[in-house]
Amino acid sequence: MMKFYEKHGIWFAVLWILVYCFATIPIRGNFGDESVLMTIALAIIAIAITMFVKINHLEEKYGLTFFPKEPKKYLYFVPVIILATGNLWGGFAIAYRGISQVFAVISMLLIGYVEEMLFRGFLFKALIPKDGLKLSVIISSVTFGIGHIVNLLAGQANLETVIQVLFAIAWGFIFTMVYLKSGSLLPCIIAHGFVDAFSKFSAESITVEWVYMIATIIIAVVYCIYLSKLPNKAIETK
User: Fold this and answer.
1) Which residues does residue 202 pair with via DSSP β-bridges, in sequence order?
2) DSSP code, position 67
3) How many CB atoms lie within 10 A of CB 87?
4) Number of domains making up the chain
5) If you count Cβ atoms within 10 Å of the first and of the last residue's Cβ in the chain, which end, N or C, has fewer?
6) Separation between Cα atoms, residue 116 and residue 216, nearest integer Å
7) 178, 185, 160: which is closest to 220 by C-alpha?
8) Cα 119 to Cα 78: distance, rounded to the nearest angstrom
9) pTM of the prediction?
């Protein structure tokens, strides 16, 4: 597998993304995020990714060994922190009862880790040598967002999916730029996990969802423009 990874990094990332999608979409559609099957499937994928990274000593390459130094440069990640709470802006409500809520939250945290490793780690880093930095940022971010269209296959409503795709593209740019400029995936993994986990404590409100979406897009544009002025760190560890 390591030889395939070294020679065909992009296809390696695509293969993992396909495995992730084909493993989780049927479970999500038939049993929901609160299913223990969803948690188990995500845990298996997360463990497999972690083992591959550790066995091949890739932790430093993907910025898993350190938290960004000089947080002041990144505005202490305040824009990310603010947006990470967005799912709670409309109020607090537990999505499921009992142990089902626990499984759902664990699954959301695992999704944060898995998706950051796949899209910001494997895919983004593999794209840079072939497509250049700017195009790699765009491809990684937009692919991450468009990938949420698959939620339609899991039975999610059309409007909800459109909102989620726009959310995800904006978040994709934020996460990619934070990773590129800080060299660490840890802030992205943590924020992504909380964004998804908080969705299971969110009171439904169409108005708040649209406010959150618009705020995410606006803040993403401003924050990414600011981050673009900083030196790149993620490409220093190849």
Assistant:
1) 92
2) P
3) 22
4) 1
5) C
6) 18
7) 178
8) 23
9) 0.92
Higher pLDDT among residues 118 and 145, named by residue:
118
Gyration radius (Cα) of the chain, Å: 17
CA dihedral of 48, 52, 54, 56, whole degrees rounded to 10: 170
**Torsion sign across C-alpha atoms 106, 109, 110, 111:** positive
Query: So what's the pLDDT on residue 89?
Result: 96
- Count, residues in the chain: 238
Its domain, for residue 207, covers: 2-236
Residue 151: predicted pLDDT:
56
Q: How many CB atoms lie within 10 A of CB 56?
A: 13
Does residue 150 register a pLDDT over 70? no
Residue among 189, 149, 152 nearest 167 (CA): 149
End-to-end CA distance of the chain: 18
Residue at token pair 């395939």: 4
> What is the pLDDT, as a whole number, of residue 149?
60
Q: What's the rounded Cα separation, in Å, for the pair 224 and 56? A: 32
